[in-house]
Specification:
mainly alpha, flat
Length: 264
């Protein structure tokens, strides 16, 4: 039960989960991305037709500037999407594996598989879900380009505070386990984490740059984004828990056989 074994299994779990997540992103999410792009192109066409007419009422044609090689939409939605998800998902699985290896034996009497499940759950809530709830994903044609830097900063601030609060909550629960019941320890630590992220969400600026974007397309886009991310994290958690559980059983059998041989 060393870090190397956790890392290898984490990378494998991340790779497999990434394939599942890509399937969800492609079949569920991409149609809504295409719908958002269609809205963006329609708005751009309207703006271009309005600005193409000069003040004297005469129309002027504008030649498109060559801005270099562009990636086609087909490649973006297939190979580009797959490459991004597989790279991030595999790396994420490795990180969760290493974090689980570090946490094993340090959180109460949880077995390695149980510790891994807890690490995956806490990681998903703090790293992904909470920031998403405050600043959800936005499709093309939504948001002012001049504020993208501020919006990105807001997201990372919420994400950083959420992760630090989650780590603090786990440490507090660990200290309380020897003094109060497990239920109370979890309740106190979880309540403290919830209070921190709620106060943070209320204190952070609100972003409302939707304009006249169709509400149904926005809803389904954000729902598919949440589903894609949840599939990735759930896949990593479930697969890695199964792999670590099997590894633990194998190591337990080896130790039992070794102890039996030494006693003879």
């Amino acid at each position: 039960m060393n870090a190397r074994n956790f890392l290898i299994r984490g990378l494998l779990a991340g790779f497999i989960a990434s394939l599942l997540s890509f399937g969800v992103a492609y079949f569920v999410g991409e149609p809504h991305v295409d719908a958002a792009i269609a809205v963006e192109e329609a708005n751009a066409a309207t703006t271009s037709s309005d600005t193409a007419v000069a003040d004297d009422g005469h129309s002027h044609s504008h030649a498109a500037d060559d801005e270099g090689t562009e990636v086609s939409r087909d490649n973006q939605s297939t190979w580009g999407l797959a490459t991004g998800i597989l790279t991030v998902g595999t790396a994420l699985g490795g990180v969760i594996g290493l974090a689980s290896a570090f946490a094993v034996g340090r959180i109460g009497r949880l077995r390695p598989a149980q510790t891994t499940a807890l690490v995956a759950l806490v990681g998903y809530v703090s790293y992904s879900l909470v920031p998403f709830l405050k600043y959800p994903a936005t499709p093309p044609a939504v948001g002012d380009g001049e504020t993208i830097g501020d919006r990105t900063l807001y997201f990372f601030v919420v994400q950083g505070i959420s992760i630090l609060a989650a780590i603090a909550a786990v440490l507090i629960a660990r200290r309380l386990l020897g003094r109060v019941s497990s239920y109370r320890a979890v309740l106190i630590a979880g309540g403290g984490y919830l209070a921190v992220v709620v106060v943070t969400a209320l204190a952070m600026p609100t972003v409302n740059e939707l304009g006249a974007f169709p509400a149904d397309i926005l809803w389904y886009f954000r729902l598919s984004s949440l589903l894609t991310n949840a599939t990735l994290w759930a896949g990593i958690g479930i697969i890695l828990v199964g792999l670590i559980g099997k590894l633990y059983e194998q190591e337990t059998i080896k130790v039992a056989r070794r102890d039996l041989a030494a006693s003879l």
